[in-house]
Design brief:
The chain has one domain: NagB/RpiA/CoA transferase-like (Rossmann fold, 3-Layer(aba) Sandwich), CATH 3.40.50.10420. α2 crosses α4. The chain has 7 helices and 12 strands. By secondary structure, the protein is α/β, with parallel strands linked by helices. It has a 6-stranded parallel β-sheet, with helices on both faces. The longest helix has 14 residues. The relative contact order is 0.22.
Length: about 190
């Protein structure tokens, strides 16, 4: 499948499970989009592609209040968390994040909104195509956390009533940013 076909399939699947998928042409454009969606502050844990493309500076320039140091202390009050993505799975609309770092887990589970920056070149067709990068992650560090995020958090374990946002974000925004990172081992 071509990259465009994978992006189309991924976008449809992610939208079907409640995520919003937005194409932007740069990290600055992503920061501007985020600025238009929030009023409070956001958690910005350290991740390599974000650092390389100066995400924190772009967010500040766009007028976004960010927290980068005391994530554990303020995570419950943050409006959003922003992370990169290791790769995504097209047929289910799933994001895969190596989230061993506590700050990544905090940014993806506690705030009501999650913004995920994904390079479209890191979308694989299905779970079978995900095996190779997953093996690489576990070979690099056999004791790591891998998060699979498919749409906003949902559960129906309380009286079988579907509830959004109990174990994670209520809203998931996937920002497709070409060229941010083609390395599946890098977030």
């Amino acid at each position: 499948m071509s990259t465009n076909q994978l992006v189309d399939q991924f976008s449809k699947a992610a939208t079907n499970v409640g995520a919003e998928v937005i194409s932007v042409d740069s990290v600055a454009a992503a920061a501007d989009y985020i600025a238009g969606k929030i009023e409070g502050f956001v958690l910005v844990p350290s991740f390599s592609s974000g650092a390389r493309f100066k995400l924190k500076a772009a967010l500040k320039k766009a007028g976004v209040a960010i927290e980068i140091d005391r994530l554990r202390a303020v995570a419950a009050d943050a409006e959003a968390g922003i992370t990169g993505v290791n790769f995504a799975i097209a047929d289910t609309g799933t994001l895969v994040l190596e989230s061993t770092a506590e700050d990544i887990r905090l940014a993806t589970t506690l705030p009501p909104k999650q913004f995920a920056l994904l390079d479209p070149s890191k979308i694989v067709a299905d779970g079978l195509d995900a095996v190779k990068p997953l093996r690489q992650m576990h070979q690099r560090d056999s004791r790591n956390y891998i998060a699979y995020v498919t749409g906003p958090s949902r559960t129906a374990d309380i009286e079988r009533v579907l509830t959004i946002g109990v174990h994670g974000s209520k809203e998931l925004f996937i920002l497709l940013v070409p060229g941010i990172s083609a390395d599946f081992m890098e977030m």
